[in-house]
Amino acid sequence: MQTYSIILLLAVTYCISVVVVPGTPDSKNLTSSNARTAPQLYGKYCSSCHGRDGSAKTNKGKFSHARDVSDASWQDDVSDERIFNSIMNGRNVRGNMPGFKDKLNEKEVDSLVSYVRGLRR
CA 97 from chain center: how many Å? Predict the structure, then answer.
């Protein structure tokens, strides 16, 4: 009976490790213990071009023609859906913004949309 318990424990442990291995695409769907906050995501993926305040006054932002996402008139004209799609798929209209669909899940992008809305000045 003890051998059966050990085998069962090993099988369960293996299944868990296969399903949730950090760094795999499925790991983006993990629950809150591993969730990244919108400020963390913005700092990691957005601020080098758009700046901490969204004004795009960074060297990289100037070079890549990054959008000033804090601009009130732009905020009035753009929908949440467009911001979401730009983050997921990128944009190549004014400059070269990469898409982040391979790095962020939909919930994280939704949180970034709200965060960008909060940068309005």
Answer: 14
Q: How far apart are CA 15 and CA 11, in angstroms?
A: 6
CB atoms near residue 73 (< 10 Å): 8
pLDDT digits (tens, 9 = 90+) for 43-80: 999 999 999 999 999 999 999 899 999 999 999 999 99
What single DSSP character describes residue 43? I
Q: Where are the domains of the chain?
A: 36-121
Please give the Cα distance from 76 to 90 (Å, whole number): 20
Class of domain 36-121: mainly alpha
Dist. CA 97–CA 89, nearest whole Å: 9
Cα 23-98-29 angle, rounded to 5 deg: 30
Whether the pTM exceeds 0.85: the reply is: no
